[in-house]
Amino acid sequence: MTSSDSSAFVRPLDGIKVVEMATYLAGPFSAKMLSDMGADVVKVEMPTGDPYRAVGPMRDGTSIYWLNGNNGKRAVTIDLKSEEGLAQLKALLAVADIFIENSKPQVTAKLGLGHDVISAINPRLIRLSITGYGPDGPLSSEPVYDALLQGRSGLLAFEAVDGVPRATNHFLADKIGALFACQMALAGLAGRERTGKGMHLQSSMLDMMSYYNFPDMLQHRTFTDDSRDWNAPPQVVVATKDGHMVLSPVTGKQLSATLQVVGCEGRKDELRAITDGRERTYRFFSIIAEPLKTRTTAEWLPLFGDAQVPAAPVNSPDAGLEDAQVLHNQVYAEMETPLGTVRAPRYPMTVDGHALRPRLPAPALGQDNDLLA
Predict the structure, then answer these.
(1) Which domains does the chain have, with CATH numbers?
(2) Which residues pair with 59 in a beta bridge?
(3) Is a pLDDT exceeding 90 seen at residue 310?
(4) pLDDT value at position 106?
(5) Catalytic one among 36, 79, 174, 306?
(6) In the annotation, is 242 catalytic?
């Protein structure tokens, strides 16, 4: 992997200007992705700042969540309740390519920032509006947070353990929303390239979660006349002598090799006699369960590797940072910031061999207000 500092290296979105007026994670994280790909992102905050600056674990009064979702940007503060503030925002939008917002539609309308107004300011602007539940409908004015979306979309019930729903331990819905929003922004740029005109792209996080959940979670509802209960696949996390590992044999050759590695090759005929594929798979995992407990994860991994059986350790998050392939791929970079040295992931692609490492630490509140002069 070559250096991202080469003078010949041009990031894909170099020259694209983004104005982000969003709070918490989904909108800001999508803008961070655009920055990683080369866009110049100016984050617009109210004078009191994005509320997410004060959420979660802190370092010297600033949220670490916020830092991780906002590096690579410049930041200004604007009082949108004042005529001067609205004029400042409109001046930024007049020269922007993309505008990302996640205000409720009622708030945007009250500020006099309807699509006709913004289109008149900049006909080539791609406006990206992200809401919780949609611009209208019975929930359009309701507040929305990550766990609420996990619950309403069916994900919490789907991940229930012993009948008890469980939220994930990370902000899944927000990060999925950010990925879709980034995709929408890129689609907008592609569309403008063809037509020469801007466009207003809208989505709700409920829509995004529903799209994300559907392919496998709702496979038993693909056909409208299907009323089956969900049948969970066999659990691929298996216990070893000192912990757990992930074992995912899929092909007949891999299943056979797994039995051989654990010393159960004599059980093949027993499995062949089971005609139901699901029952056979469950029986397979019950057969190998006890033998797997006789060795440690570190002892099993090379044995399965030599047999070409897909297997992986269940790393702790800290161990994941030091995974040999993660280190080889140079997934994480370090940046010096006023709060100390931070670790930050690069955008997960290379361009002509160049890594898209983060360029700027997260901005202090209003640090670039000179842009408004």
Answers:
(1) 17-216+328-372 (3.40.50.10540), 244-313 (no CATH)
(2) 62
(3) yes
(4) 72
(5) 174
(6) no
